[in-house]
Every structure is written in structure tokens, then in C-alpha cells.
Amino acid sequence: MTRPVLCLFATLAAGVASALSLGDFAAVHKARLTVEGPNRVRLELPSAEWDSGLRLQADPPLDFSRAKWLAVDVENLSATRQARLTLHLSAGGAGGDSGDHAVAILKKNRSINTGIGLNPGEKGTMKLLLPHPSVYGAPAHARGPYVVDTAHVTRLELKMQWPFEDEAEGLADLRLSGLRLEGEPDAARFVPPGAYVPFVDRYGQFVHADWRFKVHSDAELAGDLDRETARLRPAPASWDRFGGWAQGPALKATGHFRTEKVDGKWWLVTPEGRLFFSTGIDVTRIMTDVTDGSRHPDWFQCGVPADGKMAFTVWNLEKKFGRKDFAAAYYDLVLRRFDAWGMNTVGNWSAPELTRSGRKPYVITVFELSRDVPRLGKEKFYDSLDPRFAEAMKGAVRARFASDPALRTAASDPMCIGFFIDNELRFPKDAAYYEPYFRACGEAVRENAPGKLYLGCRFVGFRQSAALWAAAARHCDVVSVNSYGNSVANISGRIFSADGVEKPLLVGEFHFGCLDRGMFKAGLAPVCDQAERGRSYARFVEGALRHPLIVGCHWFQYRDQPLLGRGDGEAYQIGFVDVCDRPYPELFRAARRVGETMYERRRADTW
To answer: pTM to 2 decimals?
Structure first.
């Protein structure tokens, strides 16, 4: 049942709405709402289930088309818990037939969101950029930023997106205030349809916007290398050669990475016996995804090669290094960047030049969904109950180690932390499939890489059945989970309680993105700007450091995805560097600050 919204806001002369009140929201699914004053409420959440939080259903729809931001101030009232919260806006289309592209794409309900993570007692502001079709819309024959019908806002929500936690009193205790619309739309940003194409410049950047660090000339790229290398710092002084805690306790050294529970918290332990918490970046390589320019050559300011491959990253690096054979020099720069940024691990899917360098610990994947192993129909999983499964899985792993030099090196390399097999599988509901899958994978890793860690298959989030957690715990050395949220500090500590077998956790993927650098999509965990990306990185890792099960977290991914997207359409602003190989300073400075203090933080259990 919708709630009528009467006198929700007045309109200022400038056209920006004001007096948007949190008192007009309704509490949803166990949330407790206490109105403390005009546009000021206390929100207590004992649950993250069923969109627990606050909801405003607008009937008739609200018109936000004359503001730039929707904002709300958030204070974490808890003295002990980190908190996370997301702000969501949903907007319905105008309805009816329309030949206008900007209206046609908005017929169905579309949503946008932003989020925040807060340490105990911390205050912050969530700001949601309003992507007006009249400002950011692209013509039908081109592409542009994701937009919603901001003139027909039908729902606002404040909630803990992606339920991770057990229900508990005090799970989140927040004060919300000052819900408001801010600023005026950047009307000058609109590009008439006839002037929109081409919209990708010769560096792979969006033509019709400008921003700090945008590249405008080859000369700028040529000067980047000297400017950056002159400022690169060595790794934090508290680290040993593996990135472990040099000043920490000396434990048993085995020549390989291993795990150990110390004073109630799980740790990775370096080959030389030092405590190690893994901070890393996935997909660290020169080229990740190449845009196919042959389908729409008119979209690009530069010519399209005969093979259609718009290899902007390679072209930009050739200009930066002044030669085509730049790979060795570039990967040396990358490893120096990792030291300077406080990163001690090369993440999954990274270049073999990095994993075989002997300079940085790394994780590595054997394969994803092998074609040589019986499949469960068309599902993204194997028929692990097939009598042929176990030997087929072991044979496929054996063949990969025999054919891949990087895997063969990793099998005995002290810098190799361990191995993944598969990624984000779709497990069936029948628990009988779990045990044979993890058993075969674990035995295959130990057969081909004795002493190395089997890191699992990277679950999609923490919402897995107890039977699945238990099967993974029995056979994995470390259980891996990909998690896109603003905090993992409060995930259940009883994940493995089903049969008493407990294993450490590695967050295989997380990220934050935004729309202030010319990209069309922010990512799976949007925030408002680069400063908030850096702060969000710090809060996420600080929360992971507090959790007794988590032994590391890896950012996805090293470079922004292409402006026009990879093969499956992802086109996120989620990199530590952009398409022109320019690092995001707000992000790497935050990572460095965390890297310098993470061991003391984890051991002392402080915020």
C-alpha cells in the first residue's frame, strides 16, 4: 500500500527542492525508527534481511530533476561496531509510446544507489548523483552514462544492502539527518544528439566531459613516467621481504605460506614464519579487455584497426614509455607501485611477468569451469556425483600444471600463497554435490603443489548454506568469498559452526567506483567521488582487519574497465589506474595509510 506524500517539500526560487524529511519514511522489517527532530531520526537495525531499513513510497512520484545530488548525513552511534548503509532511489518511466530514446529507455523501473561504511562514532555523508536524462542522456545511436527518470521518483530507501550478518540487537545503530537535495544540474554537460558522435577520444576517454587527470596530449603521457617514479616510496618499513610483519612474533617457518590462529584470530604466515595479512589487486596486467571498434567505427575519434581491436591501454603505454617493447619496464613500475601503495599481494588473474618476478607474494587460479570435467547440464557447476568426476577434475588440474609455465613455477615458489579453482560457481541446492567437489579440488591442488594452500572457488557473497560452508571448510585451507558491500566487519563469526571445522576467509573481490572521471557506470558498490572511494577502501579493509576469520582482501580490479565495456557489458570505474595508466591518488594514498598500520591494528584489535 502506497503512502501519500503531502507537502513533502517546498520549491525554492532556484528550482531546487528543500524540506525533504526523514520523518516521512516508514520502518521496514524489524527496523526501529525514532524521530528526534525535524529531518533527524535514529535508525536501529537488528537485521539486514528483507530490505530492513527505511522506505518512502512516493505516490504521486517526486520530481528531483532540478537538483544535482540527493544527500543525507549519517552518524554511527555504536561504540563497538562498524556500520554500513546504502541509499537507493527508484524511478519509473513516463509510460506510453515514445520515439524519444531518453524517454523510451526509462519506461521500466530503474534504480541507482550509493553507500557508506563508518567506524564506531564516525560521521559521514552519503551523496547520490542524480543522473538526469536531460543532462547525461545519450542518443539512441550511441552510448552514455546510466540514467534514471529523475522527474518521476517512486521510491527512496535506506538499508543494509546484501545481507551478510546474523540478526542481533545493535547490528546497526545510526542517526540520520539532513536528507536533502543539493546543487543544480550541470546543464552545460548536455550534448545535442547531432554533436554526440564521435564520443571516444584517441586515448579511450569520453570526449564530452573534462576532469582532473584527463589526458589531452601525447606530451602529457610522455611526462607521466618521470613525474610518478620520482614520487614512489618504498614498502612500509614494518614489512619484511614478503610483506609480512617484520616486527611481529616469529612463528614456525615452513618455506611456504600457511595459516595459523593466533590469539583468537586467523592469519596467513609467510614462508619465514611472520604474520601476514594479504592486501592485493586483481587483474593486474597490461591489457584486460579490448573494445571491438569494428561495429561502430564512427564512435571513435581515431581510426579503427583492421582487426577492430581498440587497444587503448597498449597505445597509451607506448606513448608513456616512448617505445613498443615496454612490458618489462612497465611490470617493474607496477611492482614499485604496489610497494608504494601498501599492497603486498598480486591478486588473481594477473600477468605471469608479475607472479614469476620473485618480488611479491601472489595468488593464482588453475582454471574456471573446465570443459574436460562433467558438467551439471547448462549450469555453472559440475556433475560432481558423476562417477567420472573426481578423476576428471584431477586430470584437468594435472594437465593445466603441465601446460602452464606460471602454474609450474608457482607449485614450488615461496612467493605463491595458493591456488583457486573456479570462480563464482552456481551451487545446486542438493548438498550431496558439495563434498565430492571440494574433496577432488583439494586433492588435486595438493598433488600438484605440495605445501601450497587451496583457496577455494570464491563464493558469491556470504549468503551460502551451512552445508556448503561446512564442505568448503573440510577441504579448503582458506575459503574465498567475493563481497561487494561497504563493510565486512559484522559478518557472522559462526559461518563454520555446522560441524566444528573452522577455516580462515579471504575476500577475493571488492571495489568502489563513481562517476566523476568520465565513465558510464560506477561499479557494484557506488560512492559519490574519488575522496569517498579512498575513504571507503580504508573502512572496508579496517573492518576486515577486525574480523577474526578474514586473512586478506583483494581489490577488483587494477585498471578501469573500458569505457564501452568488456564482453559481458561491465564498464565500471573501479581501477587503481585509468585507461591512460594514471593512478587515482585518493585511492592509493588511502591504501598506503592502511598498509602502514594494518598489522598493529589487527593485533591490537583497535579501530
So the answer is: 0.95
